[in-house]
Amino acid sequence: MKSGFIAICGRPNAGKSTLMNCIIGEKVAIVSSKPQTTRTKILGVRTGEDYQLVLIDTPGIHKPHNKLGKRMEKYIYTATQDIDALLYVVDCNIKDEELELEKEALAGLKTSDVPVILAINKIDTVEKLQLLPILDKLQGLYNFSAIVPISAQNNENIEQLLDNLRETLPEGPKFFPDDTLTDQPERQIVAEYIREKALRLLNREIPHGIAVEIEKMKEKENGSYEILAAIYCEKQSHKGIIIGKGGEKLKKIGTFARRDIEKFLNAKVYLELWVRVKEDWRNRENFITDIGFE
Ligand SMILES: Nc1nc2c(ncn2[C@@H]2O[C@H](COP(=O)(O)OP(=O)(O)OP(=O)(O)O)[C@@H](O)[C@H]2O)c(=O)[nH]1
Ligand SMILES: [Mg+2]
User: Fold this and answer.
1) Which residue spans within the chain are E strands per DSSP?
2) What pLDDT does 186 receive?
3) Where in the chain is CATH 3.40.50.300?
4) Average pLDDT over residues 264-268
5) 234, 277 contact by CB (below 8 A)
6) 165-193 as b/e: b if 16+ CB within 10 A
7) Ligand with smallest separation from the Cα of 72
8) How many CB atoms lie within 10 A of CB 271?
């Protein structure tokens, strides 16, 4: 039996959460094209006949601009303590001027005592011939124990990556029961699904200033759920944009979120969304803690 903890790290938007979902086979972490989608560390477990991989998805490495950003940085730090391996994810479309940022990010992780596997992601977006020079560029960044080009979105080369991950793990026991997929409570997954739809349907700077809190979640006698959630934003003007003309935007967020939540809970869901303004909440330590960032 091989088992161990593997942190998934990398810069924003590299595809870390997509990769974790792909390995777990279930959507445990939300995904969007906006950077800093993941705000906390999220555990995902994959159990096989003779192995158990405990993956920890983390926020993208960036310079924090507020207290929320600092919290996110802390999550990356704690996620990389006491691990057996680190899976570093890079978007293959990296520009030359970004190489230095990757180098700094890797150095900041202080991983000198654990093997680091590099996953070069999104190879579905480049010609096969282009891969060689990209590989060449990236292998100089660090003394990686393995380099695997993948497409997390298209499930390409994931088996090879899994082989590499299993090889680096030590002999050990299962840490979780066979059917465990994540450590996130149901309420948090529901809140994250709502945030994902908001991220995807809103433009520009608003998505970063959004938080979702489940105010009520009740299972009724007939098995359906009643969920009341608040979408927090930082400005009155943002509230109007989130609600949209005639409430259309909010309705769309709700419709898409409800579909995902129903699939996840395997039940009918009645979802009510409210938009609330909390000025500068990303700098309010207590509020950040209250909405679930412990
Ligand atoms: N074409 C392509 N797109 C991908 C692939 N993997 C992820 N993406 C897209 O890249 C974007 C970012 O994906 P995420 O999984 O949210 O990235 P992340 O690294 O977790 O981002 P943060 O949580 O913000 O740090 C999304 O639009 C994904 O659909 C891939 O293999 N190919
Ligand atoms: Mg993510």
Assistant:
1) 2-10, 42-47, 51-57, 85-91, 116-121, 146-149, 211-219, 225-233, 269-277
2) 93
3) 2-168
4) 96
5) yes
6) bbebbeeeeeeeeeebbbebeeebbbbbb
7) 1
8) 21
**Mapping DSSP to helix (H, G, I), strand (E, B) and coil, where does residue 219 land?**
strand
| Nearest Cα residue to 177 out of 22, 20, 52, 25 | 52
Read off φ and ψ for residue 132, nearest 5 degrees.
-60, -50
Residue with CA closest to ligand 1 atom 1: 122
269: Cβ–Cβ under 8 A, 6 or more apart, which residues? 224, 225, 227, 258, 261, 262
**Domain 186-290 in CATH: superfamily?**
K homology (KH) domain (3.30.300.20)
122 lines ligand 1 (CB under 6 A): yes
- pLDDT (mean) for 262-269: 96
Cα gap 90→185, rounded to integer Å: 29
Pick from 272, 270, 182: nearest CA to 228? 272
pLDDT of residue 290: 87
Quick: pLDDT tens for 133-167. 999 999 999 999 999 999 999 999 999 999 999 99
pTM of the model: 0.96
CATH architecture of the domain 2-168 equals 3-Layer(aba) Sandwich (3.40)
CA–centroid distance, residue 17 to ligand 1 (Å): 7
Q: Cα 156 vs. chain centroid, distance in angstroms?
A: 19
C-beta of 14 in contact with ligand 1 (< 6 A): yes
Task: Give the model confidence (pLDDT) of 1-29 as tens digits.
Answer: 999 999 999 999 999 999 999 999 999 99
CATH 3.30.300.20 domain position(s) in the chain? 186-290
**Arithmetic mean of pLDDT over the chain:** 95
Q: What is the pLDDT of residues 188-207, one digit of tens each?
A: 999 999 999 999 999 877 88
Q: What is the pLDDT of residue 294?
A: 74
